[in-house]
Design a protein that fits this description.
The complex is a heterodimer of chains A (254) and B (351). Chain A is α/β, with parallel strands linked by helices and 254 residues long. In chain A, a hairpin with a 2-residue loop joins strand 1 (21-30) and strand 2. Chain A is 35% helix and 25% strand. By secondary structure, chain B is mainly α. Chain B has a single domain (5-340), classed as Orthogonal Bundle (ABC transporter involved in vitamin B12 uptake, BtuC). Chain B has helices at 5-15, 18-25, 29-48, 50-76, 84-98, 102-105, 119-141, 146-166, 168-171, 193-216, 218-228, 230-235, 240-266, 276-289, 294-310, 322-340, and strands at 184-185, 188-189. A two-stranded antiparallel ribbon of chain B has the order 1-2. In chain B, a hairpin with a 2-residue loop joins strand 1 and strand 2. In chain B, helix 14 packs across helix 15 (294-310). Classes of the chains: A alpha/beta (254), B mainly alpha (351). At the A-B interface, helix 2 of A face helix 11 and helix 12 of B.
């Protein structure tokens, strides 16, 4: 059961409603395993969109497909209604940043060095310093520890570092892959607050993959529910709370 | 950092106050490692006299250039290459052939091409050729990482050795090449050992400077990130293969420079100087000193040279066993090191 209205880019009615990012009929296969089956999604500018679903539903693969990190066998990704490049380094140039699952901070680099890794195409020193300042303002803990190695940080702090590193590229679209994985409940709350703050203060469009349904539904505008590589629901947090779609996909009672 | 300036400053301060030095040194293995190797080197050279000291230091300069350049690849980038001896050999053979003396070579039965170039004319060719070879090899090697990378670099060392041994029309195979010229500027020849030592140390300083610029730049930061998580940096738009290829080529060029120096210094080379074992010893030096530290590579090279040269003075040890004995001792040392100090003498990271 795919999303009903499959609409190709450029045909979007009304220029104001043209999606920032649009996935059309994307299929991903890892060898013989099909991770995504002709899924279509769209994200409007300024939106915070969640991608939810049980393990193996293909949530992370959606983000990887956008970033050119997954073997896409069919379908197109449109960015501002133009076909998005396939190579990751080209995609990064377009203003899309990815915060990978498991934080992936560089433990033998300092906090500042880690942040600087996030802006490969920025050569202007003063602009780089400005961005460092603004990211550290958003995450005071990064400022406190700016000269420490990332290995000296806790898991929650490393997640903040990973978020900050993603923001260093000053992206228009931020893709977050399981930002609360393996974190204590109190830290999870903090991470969601930061995500909401990023959306609000920096006007960054955000697509977040989460298994933590309760927390994420409070901060998103819209959510996609995935099951077995297909989109089974698309709607506002309220529409999801009202139905039992999540119970169905998570507990398998079809 | 090429030289651990903070360490030296601390040392200078502590040296003035023995009580504080003793307190500081307790449990500070890094300081002890520094003191031990440097003290050992000074004692050994004083004991054996100036002539010997010059030889020890020259051998040290060549091994240190090798260790520092290999550390860029193994330590800073995390690519365990056991193939660098191939670039060392390439540099040495290029130097030997380009500087070979036509008058002398005519006396030999098996002819090789002769050019009669000077050292300084041949050296850029040594470096350039190695760079070119590294580029070609590196494009393929870039596809691999971790243990597979070790295996392919192993293959490269084997192939290089067999080329040196079997391409007889160019390398004269097992007979080797004799009478390799010493460096010369105008009429001034570096024929004295002290002059050559100074040249070697100057090149070592150059290599250290280049390594220091690389490792403290944003390029070096990316190399560190590659060592830690190559896939993660791709996410930020870095093409890891480009960075790996660049550092691989730079390292090969510096290794080849050491090869050119070595050929000119010994004046005779044959394929036995470029066997896989030498490459493994070189990796051992880098690990012994410490990964991702330029100063560590110097300490490792010095410790290795002292071991090698020091063997000659063990009483009752027949000369034919010296080579084997140094390998046994180095082997035992490495096992002990991995057990008790896996980060090397002054390193921060483990393999």
């Amino acid at each position: 059961m795919a999303l009903a209205s499959v609409q190709t880019a450029g045909q979007a009615d009304g220029s104001g409603d043209a999606p920032l990012l649009e996935l059309v009929g994307i299929s991903v296969e890892y060898g013989a395993v099909r991770a995504l089956h002709e899924i279509s999604m769209s994200v409007q500018k300024g939106e915070v969109v969640a991608v939810m679903g049980p393990n193996g539903a293909g949530k992370s693969t959606v983000l990887k497909a956008v970033m050119g990190l997954a073997p896409v066998v069919a379908g197109q990704v449109y960015w501002r209604q133009h076909l998005l490049a396939a190579a990751t380094h080209e995609i990064v140039k377009e203003g899309i940043a990815f915060v990978p699952q498991g934080r992936r901070v560089f433990t033998h680099l300092t906090i500042t060095e880690n942040l600087e890794m996030g802006c490969i195409y920025l050569n202007d020193r003063s602009e780089k310093a400005n961005r460092l300042d603004s990211v550290m303002e958003l995450f005071p803990v990064l400022y406190e520890k700016r000269k420490d190695m990332a290995s000296a940080m806790s898991g929650g702090q490393q997640q903040m570092l990973a978020l900050g590193r993603g923001l260093m590229a000053s992206p228009e679209l931020l893709l977050l892959d399981e930002p609360t994985l393996g974190l204590a409940p109190i830290i999870v709350k903090e991470v969601f607050e930061k995500v909401a703050e990023i959306s609000e203060r920096l006007d960054t469009t955000i697509m977040v993959v989460e298994h933590n349904i309760k927390g994420v539904l409070d901060i998103v505008d819209r959510a996609y529910v995935l099951d077995k590589g297909e989109v089974v629901h698309n709607g506002t947090p309220d529409s999801i709370r009202e139905t039992d779609i999540l119970t169905q996909v998570f507990l398998g009672s079809a | 950092m090429p030289v651990n300036l903070d360490g030296i400053r601390t040392f200078a301060r502590l040296a003035q106050n023995p009580a504080e030095l003793a307190r500081h040194a307790r449990g500070n293995i890094e300081l002890w490692a520094n003191l031990f190797v440097i003290g050992w080197a000074i004692a050994f050279m004083l004991w054996q006299g100036a002539g010997f000291a010059v030889i020890v230091l020259t051998v040290f300069a060549i091994w240190a250039i090798l260790a520092v350049s290999l550390n860029l690849v193994v330590g800073f980038t995390g690519l365990l290459s056991v193939g660098h001896i191939g670039f060392f050999g390439l540099g040495a053979y290029t130097m030997a052939i380009l500087t070979s003396d036509p008058a002398y070579e005519q006396l030999r039965t098996e002819a090789i091409p002769t050019f009669g170039w000077t050292f300084f004319a041949a050296l850029p060719v040594c470096i350039g050729l190695a760079g070119l070879a590294a580029l070609l090899v590196g494009v393929v090697f870039n596809r691999f990482r971790d243990d597979i990378f070790v295996l392919v670099s192993f293959g490269f060392a084997i192939i290089a050795f067999n080329v040196f041994l079997n391409l007889r029309s160019v390398t004269r195979g097992a007979f080797g090449i004799h009478e390799i010229a010493r460096p010369q500027i105008g009429n001034w020849v570096f024929d004295g050992e002290v002059e050559f030592l100074l040249l070697g140390l100057a090149f070592l300083a150059l290599v250290m400077l280049i390594s220091w610029f690389i490792t403290t730049s944003s390029f070096g930061r990316v190399l560190t990130a590659i060592r830690e998580d190559e896939q993660a940096i791709e996410v930020f738009g870095y093409r890891a293969t480009h960075f790996k290829l660049a550092v691989w080529v730079i390292s090969a060029m510096m290794t080849s420079l050491a090869g050119g120096l070595f050929a000119s210094w010994t004046s005779f080379i044959d394929p036995n100087s470029f066997i896989l074992l030498e490459s493994v010893l070189l990796v051992s030096i880098v690990i012994l000193g410490g990964l991702a530290t330029i100063w560590g590579s110097l300490l490792g090279a010095m410790a290795f040279v002292l071991l090698e040269e020091g063997m000659r003075f063990i009483p009752y040890l027949p000369t034919e066993y010296i080579g084997q004995a140094r390998q046994v001792i180095l082997g035992i040392l490495l096992v002990l090191l991995m057990l008790f100090r896996p980060q090397g003498l002054v390193g921060r990271y483990r393999l």
